[in-house]
Amino acid sequence: MRACVRLPALVLATLAPLTAHAQSGPYTEQQAAAGRASYLANCAGCHMADLHGSNESRPLVGADFMRTWGPRTAQDLVAFLGVAMPPPPASPGSLGGQTYLNLAAFLLQANGARPGPSALAAATSVPIGSVANGEMPAGFREALARAAPAPAGGAGRTGLTIPGHIDGFVPVSDAQLRAPPSADWLMIRGNYRAWNYSELADITRDNVAGLTLQWVWSMTDGGWSEPAPLVHGGILYLYNQGNVIQALDAASGELLWENRVGPPIASGAMRGLAIYDDKIFTATSDARLVALDARTGQTVWETIIGDRTEGDFGASSGPIVIRGKVVQGMGNCTRFRKEKCFISAYDAKDGHELWRFRTVATGTERGADTWGNVADLFRAGGDTWITGSYDPDLDVTYWGVAQAKPWMPASRGNSALDRALFTSSTLALDPNTGALKWYFQHAPGESLDLDEVYERVLVDIGGEKALFTIGKPGILWKLDRMSGKYLDHHETVFQNVWDKIDPETGEPHYRADIVGMKKNEWVQGCPSTEGGHNWQAMSYNPPTRRLIIPLSQSCIEMRALAVEQVEGGGSAGADRRFYEMPGTDGNIGKLAAYDTQTLKELWALTQRAPFLTAVLSTRGGVAFVGDLDRQLKAVDVATGKVLWQTRLATSVQGFPITFSVGGRQYVAVPTGVGGGSPRVVPSLIAPEIHHPANGNALYVFALPQRR
């Protein structure tokens, strides 16, 4: 269950409202207590500590769970857990028979079933709906809140666990963030414009084959790992799974300090840190924003993002700092609640909130009339789980917004013709006030979990100030970043969800069967929710004026499920089946280069394994990228030819970076596990690709030193 368990709707019957059960449940209190410990250790990272789920991970309590499992028996639930959990890359059934019985007992108790004198057995055939009503008992909720979460890395301590002091630290200025020194790597994707590019050129297409491993740092295991390290003044700052922040000597890998910010529970990935002045800024998986002293690792301040009275939000990418303002997005916006997802800014000195922009329009706000008949309370989604970019000259920050929730309009209670602003859009915001300058909606009424939340890359082409972005449909968009005007697009992989895109406005139009979808009916689409493009960011290479983009090729069938509109409810609300994309010869991975002027594809490298890192390109003419099959590759920016490759301990995943210490250029790349659809889909359609289920680490390479 550690790698984002999703309980599919095996039965689609809609239950009549259940009355309180009268008989005891078919399990003991001891089984449920043991199941709670197993749940926190193996499942809570995806389904959350309160069992309400997160995006792809379905709720395990309430109406959604009861709709699926109420008509079935406890025997069915135990059997399903035993054959399906944990999903790949772990081994289903590996937790042991008694653990699955305990987990089933825990889920029964969470949904209102009372314990009894008889232990739950694999053959217990009592209907779940006869003993459970989907309502979490108050005592259960309190006990769950008191339970210590499963720590990442085997240590439950939090706070400054390894003190230290970095001598000679030089604070990072606004000027440095605007024009980062080539020796440093000061933010996720390298610079404000999200280029994933370095001016360092000691490693070239001619000598890259001589790279050798310099050091390895083993990171905390236990959940998703997709880190984006920072480097400043020869110090490497690293986010570890479980909200653990570390400072390392970038040349030797020596640990300098460590702060286990917490919570230590294994959870979804966090993709970035930020540095400004004398502080390191991190968001946490439970949506806190924390500032650490960059010299010592000590906590300076902490701010909670959003209101906790309706449940926690989440975060999976760190902030960007703009002239003393820490700008942060958020996630876990699936639940039906009064407070909606938002982008917000905080004072870097003390963490007090400066502004927020809500991404789901309600009431009398602009765009509120685009949700059809869906009441304000039941409008969800609009996550901003990828860090935005910034144009210092225009003083505008650009953010992508994810899809509306539930995923499919038939589950939301509206149609694909209801635009559902400001979901699936690019937002241009004033970083001083949060005011909206313009928006462009890439997927009005998004209907198949093909969100457009990913990086916004800012490039000047002659006199044109362009913004490039690409989302799960695999469409590379080119916009005017001053006005939001549509300029051009290019389909990078096969897609059939849009039957036309207006050549003047860029507005896409769904196929008729998608517009007319109904609950419980399968709809096909390419690409799949793996995404033609996902969080693995592209690179802009200025010397060649081209974008190098990691892409994936797979397709999907989805069906919308009924999602009850009750406060505190909500879910993704769909079943999914995946298959190979036509015309690809089974090659899921694609790495391709595109001209920024014409959007013409210049070269493409295809392979069976999907690419699971961002692309890093350099002035040396080399691009680095890693894949599911444990390969780290260096390719020629000009031709796509593989110049060098090495196989690491587990899948290569995260954000490669390059930096210089003492005049020597290094390349650092993470390995990791977990990661949602970009990993789950290939594990289903390419099961022959094997890799260990652990191995989160950072590998650092360099050329041999000259004698």
Q: Strands across the major sheet, in which order?
A: 1-7-6-5-4
The low-confidence runs, each spanning 5 or more residues with pLDDT under 50, are 1-22, 150-155
Query: For the CA atoms, what is the radius of gyration?
Result: 24 Å
Helix share, percent: 10-25%
Q: Please, what is the average pLDDT?
A: 91
Strand content: 25-35%
Overall 3D form: globular
Number of helices: 10
How many β-strand runs?
41
First-residue to last-residue Cα separation:
51 Å
| Helix and strand composition category | mainly beta
What do these coordinates show?
The chain is mainly beta and 707 residues long. It contains ten helices and 41 strands. It has a five-stranded antiparallel β-sheet, with no helix packed on it. A five-stranded mixed β-sheet has the order 2-35-36-37-38, with no helix packed on it. Helix 1 crosses helix 5 and helix 4 packs across helix 5. The longest helix is centred in the first third of the chain and has 14 residues, at 29-42. The termini are far apart. 58% of the residues are buried. The model is unreliable at 1-22 and 150-155 (pLDDT under 50).
